[in-house]
Amino acid sequence: MEPTQPLASGPPRVVVLQGNVPPPGMAPVERAANVLYVREAELADALPGADVLFVYDFLTEAVADAWPAAAADAPPWVHIASAGVDRLLFPALVEGDTIVTNSRGVFDRPIAEYVLGLVLCFAKDLHTTLRLQAEGEWRHRETEPIADRRAVVVGTGPIGRAIGRALAAAGLRVSGVGRTARSGDPDLGEVLPDDRLHEAVAEADYVVLAAPLTDRTRGMIDRAALARMRPSARLINIGRGPLVVEDDLVAALRTGEIAGAALDVFVDEPLPSPSPLWDLPNVIVSPHMSGDIVGWREELVRLFADNLDRRVDGRPLRNVVDKRLGYVGSGAPAASS
């Protein structure tokens, strides 16, 4: 249960797992706490006795291997600098008392803008225009409207909701897929339960994946789901790579079973150079950047600093995750970035 009492006297001990780029703007945290910056190889030795682990390197797989065997040595709180928490949901952490918080809210609007840009790119064939310009070829074409086209957003958390609002404002007809069915959702209209995913994607011109990666969602877009999609439909994935069975997607794209895909996340990142996704003309590949606008790193640190102040004061933490579902406590999915 989330603590409501302040920490014991003295500054908290904060372990920061950083990647190649150190977190910027850490001065407020350093004034409030004893901060230790570590790399993956140093994490196991640093964790015992820590009051909090700040997982700034949110792509790391090292936390599970470095987690203390003794529950008493595990930090009571872990904060990750991403909305997705799938890399933290290993058994020892899920079954223990450690609180997990995420960075929900930082990426919502930027990702929604990115998805709208991808929809416009497909509809107006901008990727082909850029290719033809590079080749010096003048080729007149007609493009598609987006008004009244159907978009299905899979994942009804804050990121999915922001996407729904952006697409609806641009004139698309939006619906959703989530764990619970409902009508008249203010952001997503009609929401079908995820066991009716195939029914939902069959009606869509654009299928947008914004769901968290869980056992329930892994591989949800497979051969069967792709077979239900329209030949004119496009798939956009800004959630997690393993939501899609990539071999099935490549086959569907090659045969024209669907018209195209825009992928910001992949099973293996960076996307390996032999992957056929690089060369398919109806695919847009981006390097896991859909939420990364200017200043995003500083915003991640500000959110953590605010939560650290709350922890020290005994106030409720923001963005507490239900570890057993991969969902935040408010009931909205801890959607990935």
CATH topology of the largest domain: Rossmann fold
Within CATH, the superfamily of the largest domain carries the name NAD(P)-binding Rossmann-like Domain
Described by the principal axes of the CA atoms, the overall outline is elongated
| Poorly predicted runs of 5 or more residues | 327-337
Radius of gyration: 21 Å
Number of helices: 11
Write down the CATH class of the largest domain: Alpha Beta
Series of H and E elements: EHEHEHEHEHHEHEEEHEHEHEEHEE
Q: Calculate the terminal CA-CA distance, rounded to whole Å.
A: 26 Å
Rounded mean pLDDT is 93
Portion in helices: 25-40%
CATH architecture level-2 label of the largest domain: 3-Layer(aba) Sandwich
**What is the topology, as strand order, of the major beta sheet?**
8-9-7-6-10-11-12-13
* Structural class label: alpha/beta
Q: What fraction of residues sit in β-strands?
A: 15-25%
What is the count of β-strands? 15
**Biggest sheet features:** 8 strands, mixed
* Overall tally of structural domains: 2
Can you describe what's shown?
- The chain has 337 residues and is of the alpha/beta class.
- The protein has 2 domains: 13-106 and 294-328, Rossmann fold, CATH 3.40.50.720; 108-285, Rossmann fold.
- Helix content is 29%, strand content 18%.
- The chain has 11 helices and 15 strands.
- It has helices at 27-32, 43-46, 62-66, 91-95, 108-123, 126-135, 158-169, 197-201, 223-228, 246-255, 296-313; strands spanning 13-17, 34-38, 52-55, 77-80, 99-101, 150-154, 173-178, 182-185, 189-193, 206-209, 234-237, 260-263, 283-285, 321-322, 327-328.
- Strands 8-9-7-6-10-11-12-13 form an 8-stranded mixed sheet. It has a 5-stranded parallel sheet with strand order 2-1-3-4-5.
- α5 packs across α7.
- The longest helix has 18 residues, at 296-313.
- The radius of gyration is 21 Å and the shape is elongated.
- The two termini are 26 Å apart.
- This is D-2-hydroxyacid dehydrogenase.
- It comes from Actinomadura vinacea.
- Keywords: NAD, Oxidoreductase.
- InterPro entries: D-isomer_DH_CS (IPR029753), D-isomer_DH_NAD-bd (IPR006140), NAD(P)-bd_dom_sf (IPR036291).
